[in-house]
Automatic annotation (TrEMBL):
The organism's place on the tree of life at top rank: Bacteria
Species annotation: Noviherbaspirillum album
PANTHER family per UniProt: RESPONSE REGULATOR PROTEIN PILR (PTHR32071:SF100), TRANSCRIPTIONAL REGULATORY PROTEIN (PTHR32071)
Limits of the Sigma-54 factor interaction domain: 143-373
Lineage: Bacteria, Pseudomonadati, Pseudomonadota, Betaproteobacteria, Burkholderiales
Name of this chain's protein: Sigma-54 dependent transcriptional regulator
Keyword tRNA processing carried by entry: no
């Protein structure tokens, strides 16, 4: 029951004090309330795991307290106490959202047993959620890299993952820094805990502190209920701070405090809360240069770079491209619900391997998805690639276009048929497509393919 936060609600001070002392000795953090109004205020501020509440109270009863707490979004478990052994009262409390029920006078060992049971329920609920995420993750195929730079990176990941060291992952946009962060989590002792990704560049600056560290109700305009915050949601797991270079200087100070103290202070709260979180950060910016320019704190930079991993751009590890493309075709077909097997023509693989990929792996995945959508009869051709990529025909491809192989002769014949159909239709490509018995989009893709191969001027 250690680290469990328990609220004891009773209008009799002696009962509150006895319960509070016994729970504190068992390792709980205990908060007290003398009536339902005070209890509700503390509940909506957030952080309470279990509330032990009397039913009969001077302002409004415990059952109404449960109803109001649930309406405010409070997820604490309630254990109700009453001096009246009424089954009807017990049923009403459970219907209102209470988890358990005790008859006064309560025994200390019984209270501890009931609270331990609530702790187990909360733990099991959290574990079930994590297990569902893990099952979904294990169903995904894992890609194995071929290039020496990525093999070296995998070796470093295997070294740092089992530790609790803070890790900084750098690299150009789209290189897969988030994938590296998730691998670190999955290979760590925290794999059973949550993996919480945060895009620091996507959160408005005025909301970032609240998003990261949480807030209590009424701490600012619009804070109509308490928020736990992403750091506390990642407790016992890993928080991935993507685009860390976008973090404002004021938040950099607070993040440094979190790293050093292992605790967070919600906005509007005077109480810090322990956060057992492993931090993995990522950026495509030059943090050392930002430090020199005074835009990033030097002390935070050194805290983040305890272990630094750099992900090279795709153009520097072309060995990965062929297998990466096949991996993306398999995964993309499942994601897009595309039926059947897909075959990629050799020329397509040559073009993809020759392109420089300024958008890196993310751009490659987008191109593969587009090709899967456009491919006809499960065959991915050069015409299914974006024009700016399809035009980059390797030298071997140009030579092949003028060769005498069966494929080359078929292409030239197909090109002549399509050219004649367009001419016969007076240049109207829609009419030409209808006469040829193909779709207009297919005709355009064929024309793009022939232009890329130099068969059309």
């Amino acid at each position: 029951m250690k680290s469990l936060e328990v609220l004891v609600v009773d209008d009799e001070p002696a009962i509150r004090q006895i319960l509070a002392v016994r729970l504190a000795k068992a390792g709980c953090r205990v908060v007290q309330a003398a009536d339902a109004t005070e209890a509700l205020e503390k509940l909506v501020q957030g952080g309470i795991d279990v509330a032990i509440s009397d039913i009969q109270m001077p302002d409004f009863d415990g059952i109404e307290l449960v109803r109001r707490a649930r309406a405010a979004g409070v997820d604490a478990n309630f254990i109700m106490m009453t001096a009246y052994a009424s089954v009807d009262t017990a049923i009403e409390a459970i219907k209102a959202g209470a988890s358990d029920y005790m008859i006064k006078p309560v025994r200390n060992d019984e209270v501890l047993h009931r609270v331990a049971k609530m702790a187990d329920m909360r733990r099991l609920s959290s574990e079930n959620r994590v297990l569902r995420d893990m099952v979904n993750a294990t169903q995904e195929e894992v890609f194995s890299f071929e290039s020496p730079p990525m093999r070296d990176l995998e070796r470093l990941i295997a070294k740092v993952a089992p530790t609790d060291s803070t890790v900084l992952v750098t690299g150009e946009s789209g290189t897969g820094k988030g994938v590296i962060a998730r691998r670190i989590h999955q290979q760590s002792g925290r794999a059973g805990g949550p993996f919480t990704p945060v895009n620091c560049g996507a959160i408005p600056e005025n909301l970032m502190e609240s998003e990261l560290f949480g807030h209590v109700k009424g701490s600012f305009t619009g804070a109509d209920k308490a928020r736990k915050g992403l750091f506390l949601e990642a407790d016992k797991g890993t928080i991935f701070l993507d685009e860390i270079g976008e973090l404002p200087l004021a938040l950099q100070v607070k993040l440094l405090h979190v790293i050093e103290e292992k605790s967070v202070r919600p906005v509007g709260s005077e109480q810090a809360k322990k956060a057992d979180v492993r931090i993995v950060a990522a950026t495509n910016r030059d943090l050392a240069q930002m430090v020199a320019e005074g835009r990033f704190r030097e002390d935070l930079y050194f805290r983040l770079t305890v272990f630094h991993l750099h992900v090279p751009p795709l153009r520097e590890r072309r060995q990965d491209i062929p297998e990466l493309v096949r991996f993306m075709v398999r995964r993309g077909a499942k994601r897009l619900n595309a039926s059947g097997e897909f075959v990629m023509e050799p020329e397509v693989e040559q073009v993809l391997g020759a392109y420089d990929w300024p958008g890196n792996v993310r751009e490659l995945e987008n191109v593969v998805d587009r090709a899967l959508i456009l491919a006809e009869e499960g065959r991915i051709t050069q015409a299914d690639l974006p024009p700016q990529i399809a035009r980059l025909v390797p030298a071997s491809g140009v030579a092949a276009a003028g060769g005498n192989g069966l494929r080359d002769q078929v292409r030239r014949f197909e090109c002549s048929v399509i050219t004649k159909a367009i001419a016969d239709a007076g240049g109207d490509r829609r009419v030409a497509a209808r006469h040829l018995g193909i779709g207009l989009s297919s005709l355009y893709r064929k024309i793009e393919e022939f232009e890329a191969l130099g068969l059309l001027s």
